[in-house]
Amino acid sequence: MKAYFFFALKRLIQLICVIFAGCSIAFFVSHLSPISPVESIIGRVSGQSSYSPEAIENLRAALTEMFGLDVPLHEQYFNFLRRLAVGDFGPSLLAFPRPAIELVMLALPWTFGLLTVSTLLTWLIGNVAGGLAGYYQNSRLLKALGILAIAIQPIPYYIVAFMMVIIFGFFWPVLPISGGFAMNVRQAWTPEFVLSVLHYAILPAASLTIVGIGTWFLGMRALVSNIVTEDYVTFAELGGVKRNRIVFSYVMRNAMVPQLTSLAMTLGAIFSGTIITEQVFSYPGLGSLLVTAVNRGDSATTLAVSCIAVIAVASAIFIIDLLHPLVDPRVRAE
Amino acid sequence: MDRRGFLLGTTAIGALLAAGTSLAFAQDDAATPPLTDFPRNETLIINNPENPSTNPSNFNMWVAGNGSSWSNGLHQLVLDTLWFIDPDNGLDGSMYNELATGPWEYNADFTEMVVKLRQGIMWSDGVEFTAADVKYTVETQIANPGMVWSAPFADAIESVDTPDDYTVHFKLKKPNARFHSLFTVRWNGAWIMPKHIFEQQADVKAFDFNPPVGLGPYTLNSFDPNGGWYIWEKRADWDKTAMAEWGEPAPKFVIYRSIPNNDKRLIEMVNGDLDMIHDLSPEGMFALANQDPTARGWFPGFPYAHPDPTLPMVIFNTQNPMFQDNRVRWALALMLDPLEMSMASYRGAATLSAIAMPPTGTHTDDYHGPLQDYLIGYELNTGKQTIKPYDPTVGQRIADMVRPQFGESVPTEEAAIHKSFGFGWWKQDLAAAGELLEAAGFTKQGDQWIMADGQPFKFTLKTFPDGVINRLGTDIAQQWARAGVQATAETVPDIFGNELPLGDYEAAMGWSIETWGGNPDLSFFLDSWHSDYVAEPGERQTARNWQRWSNPKLDEIIETMRVTEFTDHDANVALGNDFIKLMVDEMPVIPVMSFNVFSAYDTRYWTGFPTAEANPYANIVNNWANSKYILTQLKPAG
Amino acid sequence: MFAVFRDLIRYNVEFAIGAVLVTVIVIFAGLSFFSPVDPTQIYLAIPDQPPGAQYWFGTNSRGQDMFWQLSFAFRNTLIFGLTVALISRVISIVVGLAAGYMGGWVDRVLMFINDIFVAIPIFPILILFYFVLRSNLNGFTLALAMACFGWPYDARLIRSVTLGLRHREFTRQAVFAGMSPMKIMLEEHLPYVMPIVFATTMANMIWSIGLEVTLAVLGFTNINIPTVGTTLYWANNHSAMVVGTWWWILIPVIIVVLLFIGLFLLAVSLNEYIDPRSRLRRMGA
Q1: What are the chain A neighbours of C121 within 8 Å (beta carbons)?
Q2: Do the chains contact at C224 and B491, CB–CB below 8 Å?
Q3: Which residues have CB under 8 Å from C130's CB, separation 6+?
Q4: pLDDT tens for the 334 residues of chain A, in order
Q5: Topology adopted by domain B38-78+202-305+600-636
Q6: Which residues form the signal peptide (chain A) (predicted)?
Q7: How many helices (H) and strands (E) does chain B have?
Q8: C-alpha dihedral (C63, C67, C68, C72), degrees to nearest 10
Q9: Structural domain boundaries in chain B
């Protein structure tokens, strides 16, 4: 237990460092921008109404202070870190002066839900199918699946998502293709709402899953086909252990460990796929918010989404890492 | 507990926690029952062209930049103001007296304006609308700089009085015959605020105005907390609103759906989940017309699109030394082939205009038609010869060009061709363009033009990242490049937000001319073109004169306009002619075409929409507040 | 080296297929050097022509011959992928060799940084780059930015190989002979990790090209430069899917999928070559 505690502590320190580094990178990249958020807001606000020069000057001063841009860069950076600790990214430009973090928090649950469901599905289906394919190497069906996996896995997310829209929204219009839930339910803790959310999530989640499965399938198949040559598997086979038990308890269990590590490693990439998927399905998550923020020149929201993405992905990796010793006794003994 | 049990347990708890946090955000009104369905024969579904609202629960659109949406139904169905003007014919003329009982009344020198208000109009919460609301709207916005109409009110209004509950008396700071236009809706105008709601707020700018209380015939039913849709329901007392004068709006529910992706708009309409589309790509429109027998555009066939009273153009930054000589600007215009521009941008479905006036609404009768003789006779001195640059056959040639592809649906009558494709445009004349450039001191080395200072004639043309304006800009830069100008097109994401107001461009695609459409008066854009408003280089230019061009004759026209009665048709047309001729001589922008919007509607569930050929009573482009009058003409289909 | 290549082609079907696919696409991309048209020009051909004798890959709604357009697109995309791969290989080799050979605190520090980079979601960061640079974001800048994030996984692999090499006899001999650590790493260890470098190059190219496509479809790259991603951006912009100009989307997708399959097969077969255990299995041992 003590070993696990140190292991967890080490990972926690790492988590903090990742968040610190990631958010710092995001901060400096966004502050290289030649477009000042203050000028963007003035442009947007004064474009809707004709302002006097004095009014613009007042607005500029107020905004500069609000964004904390009236001090040198290093001080801005320390202020940013201080504000980061309490989740303050300044006012958004999209919904000025509503705090950017509020917009992010509105979008976060949607992305979180979509990502969690599709990642779990993808990982489980891909690994089980890949494991079986690695074990039963002569099955025609599984071989065909392997070829399919190689062919589908490199198709860009966007194409798959859009094909889903065309197929299930146009040629055979049976599933909703935009939004998070139906117009005739209210967002509340009701069975109608939950069912509606699930209904609307089918296509986005399915498109993420289809693209994602291939990688796990191929990875697991390769791992398992190595493991089946190990002596202990041969012994188990000779010893008359049931095949199902061999596949799931002896072979896959061992292959799961590296696959769990890969899951942690690929979360960032999955996140980028989600952005595209949300865009295609007008899904109300972080991806849609990020795209809108970038297109409208909203640096506060863009920075907020980036930092939250860093924090979320790093935390997910942290949690997976914490689970690690539970599936892999070797890590636990370390 | 063994390891597997522990694993399962933690995973389950994790999943529950995840679900819990997701829904923790989703319980604002858990007590309210689920909504009823929206029967299709009582519901009109309209496409809101904007992205999902970024501040969905905010309806206070008097505050600039707060993220509240306008064209989600709020300004079409809920808010109201004194007058409306239609870019097309209108139900009974293009002017509508909404909250006012009749037109504005100015005094002799245009320093005072009196408005008489309708009686018996109710806010949606049952409080009566009176002159006090108008006075409050003006005074509140003057007192709170940063609201949408603060600056124009503060600039123009000395004081506002209410002699009685139904009369408003404005005293103006200086003579202004166009003051009423602040309260006249083209696509939007100064909406009246409900005094009894706002005066209870400590900070009117921070107020979210949810639910909105309005003067229109609809109220908020529900909305997507993520900003994707807004549902409005007809008021039981709809007859207590100004719009009742034009009839009862037919749909019980109106849904505005934000569908940013063009293709999905088409799919939703074909599936019967959308009755009106705001805009499609040209290809999308052609495909929709093919695939959906009940769908159509403004025109029954090619070119389908509704010409908006907006004039896409090449805008020169006239503060840049490169573009200060009108011979250079003219030379660049003469390098362009109008047929190619029409094909490249709109696949031929463009309505071209050689003059600085959108070829739409009543303008073709007021300006384009009558000015044909002037244009045909117009002479341009290139320095070596005098040419007549105008080609009146361009519209006809475009019709002939697209006929093989679109056949029957392309009009054949001259008048219809002029309405659809435009009258004419400038001839492409590279020789004359070269002579003009030489006259301006340019020289040609090889096949490239060199400016008088020895530098190559090289600039970027900034254009939109997508849509027809992107294609037009790409094509124009390409045509210039072929003619020896080192022009390259560059796409920028938010040209009206950054490059145009900051003057951070050499040449750009966009527009600085937008008109009423249904009236020859030009004040809508022209007042802001006065040299008083031209910013210094590097400073922010206030809206519309993006070319930063000034001219004494232009100031004269604007100053005369400010003291000419809006309703004096002939005087305004005369001023418009002066303006157009000055623009032809100077060419500070190259006018290209009207902004044709591929709006479409489906008659599967509703009929009675306006049509270009038979009944052009309203603009079908549904982010315009004026589109609300369509609702009174609709009938359930079948 | 050449002998290895010949053997791989001869005895490893996967390698052979992969090599053929990649070679064909590279040749196709190379054709762009002989293109009769400028890819930035529009309306040079009749728009919306389906694939046929005159236009092999059809024309798009912008009046561009898709054959030449895609040739340029794949050239830019391949150059982009290679640039990212090369730069990130350099970083991962330096980090991996140094961490593996030096060990101790150098290793700990480098691997700590490495783990941080693994955990940072790169996509939002890349979007930030676009947000800042906008149309100044050229292919090379984007490649550089991506390369800065594309090395950590492979650096760890290289480190693990170098760790093993450190205790081998020849390393000790080199140390006793007075070779500098730099020299040992570059001359003695580098050749051992080169197979891994080659295999990861393929995987890295798949990764970076996929990211470029994702960014471009959203319009978050310089859309004035033809690449696979911007081709899809423009197709989407002209409603290609619902309008029926399917070749505008289908052909680039097929070619890019073939390219990815080719690179994937190369990477897999190289991996197999590196890992003798699976090679033995293939030979039936």
Answers
A1: 22, 267-268, 271-272, 309-310, 313
A2: yes
A3: A294, C137, C215, C220, C221
A4: 677 888 888 889 888 988 898 899 888 888 776 667 677 777 766 655 555 666 677 777 777 777 777 778 888 888 888 888 888 888 887 887 788 999 999 898 999 889 888 988 999 999 999 888 888 888 888 888 888 887 887 787 888 888 888 889 888 888 988 888 888 888 878 888 888 889 999 999 999 998 888 888 888 888 888 787 778 888 888 888 887 788 777 788 778 877 887 787 777 777 778 888 898 898 998 988 988 888 777 888 888 998 988 888 888 888 888 887 777 665 544 4
A5: D-Maltodextrin-Binding Protein; domain 2 (3.40.190)
A6: none
A7: 19, 29
A8: 110
A9: 38-78+202-305+600-636, 83-196, 306-596
CB of A161 closer than 8 Å to CB of B202? no
A314 domain-assigned: no
CB contact under 8 A, B344 and C42: yes
> Looking at the domain that runs over B306-596, which CATH code has it been given?
3.10.105.10
Contacts of A212 (CB under 8 A, 6+ apart): A118, A119, A122, A123, A126, A270, A273
> What chain A residue is nearest to B504 in terms of C-alpha separation?
A35
- Assigned CATH class of B83-196: alpha beta
- Is C23 a domain residue? no
Nearest to B283 among C40, C42, C243 (CB): C243
The C-alpha atoms of residue B205 and residue A214 are separated, in whole angstroms, by 52
CB < 8 Å to A212, chain C: none
B634 sits in which H/E element? none
Q: What is the largest CA-CA distance in chain B?
A: 99
C124 contacts chain A (CB < 8 A): yes
Residue A25 sits at the chain C interface (C-beta within 8 Å): yes
Residue C57, domain CATH = 1.10.3720.10
How far, in whole angstroms, is CA C248 from its chain's centroid? Answer: 23
In terms of CA atoms, which chain A residue is nearest residue C125? A26
Q: Nearest Cα to B521, choosing from B573, B582, B577?
A: B573
Write out the residue range of the structural domain in which residue A201 sits. 107-296
DSSP B370-381: TTHHHHHH--EE
Within the 263-282 window of chain A, which residues sit less than 8 Å (CB to CB) from chain C?
264-265, 267-269, 271-273, 275-276, 279
